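Thread title: Can someone regenerate the structure for this chain?

I was given the following input by a collaborator and told the matching structure tokens would be attached. They weren't. Posting the sequence so someone can regenerate them.
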Amino acid sequence: MFESSNPEFYLAHFDLSDIAGSFGLMKTAGPSGLPILMDTFVRLTKSPVVSIAKIRGRARGVGSEFVLACDMRFASREKTVLAQVEVGSGAHPGGGGTERLPALVGRGRALEIIIGSDDFDGQTAERYGYVNRALPDAELDGFVDKFARRIATFDRRPIEAAKNLVNQVSLPSADRLLDGSNSFLTSVAWPEAERRFQALFERGLNKPGDTENRFGELLGTLLDKNVRPTCARLSSARSALRRASPSTTIPFFDPTSRMVKPSGPRRISAWAFEAQPSGSEISRPPSAAMRTARCSPRPIRTTSTPASE
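Best answer:
Regenerated them for you:
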């Protein structure tokens, strides 16, 4: 069982003030031949014993990836904060977050966690599947202790066999983890990452205080770009889909139709959303069609040719 003696921080992110030392962990090979950080996480997941993360405090970035590598996660409802903050910092996760989260929470929520780069409290983490359970802080220690003692009374061989079978259908491959790690090492050298790292240090990153306490929240206003979401109507949803997948015919359900015919594609109401900077950062003004689309309450319908009527 892994727990923290610091009630405010379970396990923080990489020490970005010592880039060489921190990222050396991503390059030095461990016993399995994988980089030592990835090697540690992989050996933890494949260990014959059961690993439990008892989370109280903040676990962000690689701290989050450590608890994801544990077999089970139990969290304090009031005092847990989990986050993958890398995208908001100009990079992306490299310790298994992008590979492990989708299997736990689903693709959409994994993207919300990773791309959103915001903090998640214990209750939300439980609802999403980020952790097994979130319990009232006063009950966390007793629950985890009782559970750990219970499974400790069971025989080692069936525990090891059961865990091995679950691993076979649930763990990402070493190749995928290594791809993510290598891509992360590339991403931290991007100009976007350097710019955001600098802004974070200017705000007090790696020091006790407001920035570390509210890391996820502050990422949303780090560079104060004042971006706004805009929407544009697709002139032809069918042609857009054909460009994306030219050899595939996709049937659509028209929610405005009273009768659904399974014989072929029908109509689709399509919207496209994108984030664009406001003011001087817009490279060109939106077209009249786009300006109309923003104000129009009705989506355009594009009709594809049914297979039969």
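The longest helix spans residues 137-152.
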